[in-house]
Automatic annotation (TrEMBL):
SUPFAM superfamilies in the cross-refs: HIT/MYND zinc finger-like, SET domain, TPR-like
Domain (MYND-type) ranges: 295-335
Phylogenetic classification of the source organism: Eukaryota, Metazoa, Ecdysozoa, Arthropoda, Hexapoda
Span of domain SET: 250-514
Pfam family, one: zf-MYND
Keyword Signal: no
PROSITE patterns in the cross-refs: SET, ZF_MYND_1, ZF_MYND_2
Keyword Lipid metabolism: no
CDD domains attached to this UniProt entry: SET_SMYD
InterPro entries documented for this protein: SET_dom, SET_dom_sf, TPR-like_helical_dom_sf, Znf_MYND
Keyword list, A-Z: Metal-binding, Zinc, Zinc-finger
Protein name per the record: SET domain-containing protein
Length: 630
């Protein structure tokens, strides 16, 4: 494997980013556990599956889920929902969105605000920037830096950067302090970038000599070759690209599959290792717990070059381009109310709301034009691959016209209640309030929020990162299988889909939306899958599943499997093997024995293959980023 020298900080940053940091569970899980709601609901299916999964899980997993329940009870929103359920069970049974909106109007969620303020230790929501607070956070960062806790220091500096006023020297000093962390970590490109940011943001002239010395040292270190950016093995697109959609391989099409709806279809044979898609997100939501760690526009996990929204203290972007686009397409509709929006539990549907405002931007903020378009184009399906992907309006059409199945009544009603609260918060925003005027337009807003909430839930291909939710234009065509023939690699918002079992022309291309079944406990699997709100009909799960046929049909393990496996292990364990040899050997073995193999050994092989691919992809994304800085 290729080891990236001097990237220890980023490796630890990555582990920090994926660790459970503030809350014991992801909010997406909490969304699932919101089925406390069960007591008032007609259908008990979801609750029963939770209880079953609890019963089936081991002690450690029970503990983990118990924490999820506890976290759920701590959410500021929980008592408010329970009170509403007690007061108006009928309203929840009918699920009428206008009735839910009226309820929220009549019973403003003041208790939610109070509980939230108490939890975050502030007496004001959506506070303005404040240099005093920025200086305090910077001091806290300095203390951590002094103890060589670089990650802790970076997070404090990022927070300080957010709080500092745009014309203050506090902003410049925080950037300069971030450069010191990178200098000490031998990350000279990032140190230089932060020195530049410090200069552009009022770094005080009296401190210039200190910064100049650091800058000179960085340049000397880079010139002396001390810092080498290694070449990583790029498993880029190894196939010809689709002419109009370059991120997609030629030979990938769409088809209708009974009970799945649309899906991705192979128009030619594919072999193990073929990269069929490399895509960035169309829509992003960064969970509030990671607001100082990831770009709110492209979802890149990024603690080193983030710049703040110039107006609020809760949103950061990885560069000026993301800031400009993020502002135009989404943040200008939420800047100033972000704190209140953050207070509401976030499900996988949240990017749907971002979507609504992205759409409005495409209609030049004309609510009437958007309403007319929506009236004329309902969800009657489309061929996503025929759209023009460079045209932002076509991207809007892609999700707007997608034919999606309804959500189950209890999930839908719960989400609608959350939407009713979000709706009121959005209308408090001066821009939103001034664009949506009159009953017609406001009803349209509420209904569009509802529609895109369903769309985003249905178009989700899984929660790849505990603290971020993304929507992908092309990948959202892929259906789920518990025994998928393709695998999604994820790094910093980017995804790559790689074939992991030979695919024949005409076959459906499926990925897993979460954990691969059989590799995790049933409890974990159901908790993960519960958020998608569909009953899986893949060959493994469906009644009369073809899995049974598969096992019957499975040929006896080929006699040479074990001898081939020994050769493979020799290649993998040989210190002199290069990454490409290892990966090629693995691919060949998986391709050769995909249709006839001893199950246990083969599953291990697949896991190893996926792990190596994932590591390579993470290195690839990271090195791309470093190279962009040069
Ligand atoms: C990301 S979309 C996939 C494309 C979708 N079939 C379409 O027509 O646009 C996910 C939705 O497809 C359906 N789906 C995907 N995998 C499925 C499976 N294994 N079993 C049943 N439905 C599935 C569900 O309705 C799910 O919410």
């Amino acid at each position: 494997m290729v080891n990236l020298p001097n990237l220890h900080v980023f490796c630890s940053i990555r582990s920090l980013i994926s660790s459970r940091f503030y809350w014991p569970v992801g909010i997406q899980d909490l969304h699932f556990f919101s089925i406390e709601f069960k007591r008032y609901s007609q259908s008990r299916t979801m609750f029963q599956s939770t209880v079953m999964s609890f019963a089936l899980s081991n002690e450690a997993e029970q503990q983990e889920n118990a924490e999820a329940y506890e976290a759920y009870s701590l959410l500021p929103m929980t008592p408010y929902i329970h009170k509403a359920l007690e007061r108006c069970p009928e309203m929840f049974r009918s699920g009428d969105i206008f009735a839910l909106r009226d309820y929220v109007r009549q019973h403003p969620p003041q208790m939610v605000y109070d509980r939230y303020k108490e939890q975050v230790g502030r007496d004001e929501l959506d506070p303005p920037k404040c240099n005093e607070r920025a200086a305090k956070l910077r001091q806290e960062g300095n203390t951590l830096y002094g103890k060589k806790d670089y990650l802790g220091a970076l997070l404090k500096y990022n927070e300080s950067i957010c709080w500092a006023c745009g014309d203050s020297e506090d902003l410049g000093i925080a950037f300069a302090n971030r450069s010191a962390v990178y200098y000490d970590s031998k990350e000279y490109e990032f140190a230089l970038l932060n020195i530049r940011l410090a200069r552009q943001n009022n770094y005080p002239a009296r401190l210039f000599p200190k910064l100049e010395v650091r800058e000179l040292n960085c340049r000397m270190k880079i010139e002396s070759g001390e810092r080498v950016i290694p070449e990583v093995l790029k498993k880029g697109m190894n196939l010809e690209s689709n002419l109009s959609i370059p991120c997609l391989a030629k030979g990938v099409g769409t088809g209708e599959f009974p009970r799945y709806g649309r899906g991705m279809k192979a128009e030619q044979d594919f072999k193990v290792g073929d990269v069929i898609l490399r895509e960035g997100p169309a829509m992003v939501n960064v969970d509030t717990r990671r607001k100082f760690q990831a770009c709110h526009h492209c979802a890149s996990d990024n603690v080193y070059s983030l710049i703040p929204c110039p107006h609020c203290v809760f949103v950061m972007y990885c560069n000026e381009e993301c800031l400009t686009n993020g502002w135009k397409e989404c943040h200008r509709f939420e800047c100033g109310i972000k704190d209140r929006l953050n207070m509401v539990p976030h499900g996988i549907f949240i990017p749907g709301l971002t979507w609504l405002f992205y759409g409005l931007t495409q209609f030049n903020d004309s609510v009437d034009d958007m309403m007319n378009y929506c009236k004329e184009n309902d969800r009657n399906g489309n061929d996503p691959l025929s759209l023009e992907y460079t045209n932002p309006l076509d991207i809007f059409k892609l999700f707007h016209t997608a034919k999606v199945k309804l959500l189950s009544p209890q999930v839908h009603t719960y989400n609608r209640f959350i939407l009713a609260i979000l709706y009121d918060i959005y209308l408090e925003h001066p821009l939103v309030g001034s664009l949506f005027v009159g009953e017609n337009q406001r009803n349209f807003l509420l209904q569009a929020m509802d529609d895109y909430m369903t769309m985003a839930t249905r178009m989700s291909i899984g929660v790849r990162h505990e603290y971020k939710t993304e929507l992908y234009s092309i990948a959202s065509l892929c259906n789920h299988s518990c025994n998928p023939n393709a695998h999604v690699l994820y790094s910093s918002g980017q995804i790559k889909i790689v074939v992991v079992s030979p695919i024949q022309k005409g076959e459906q291309i499926c990925i897993s939306y979460g954990y691969v079944k059989d590799e995790v406990s049933d409890a974990r699997f159901f908790a993960q899958m519960g958020v998608f709100d569909f009953t899986c009909i893949c060959q493994v799960c469906a009644p009369n599943s073809s899995q049974k046929k598969l096992s019957k049909n499975r040929r006896q393990p080929h006699h040479s499997f074990h001898s081939d496996l020994r050769v493979l292990n020799e290649i993998i364990e040989n210190e002199n093997s290069i990454a490409s040899d290892r990966i090629n050997a693995l691919q060949q073995l998986i391709q050769r024995y995909a249709k006839g193999h001893p199950p246990g050994e083969y599953a291990k092989l697949l896991r190893k293959y996926r792990t190596i691919l994932q590591k390579l992809f993470e290195d690839e994304v990271l090195v791309e980023l470093i190279k962009k800085l040069n």
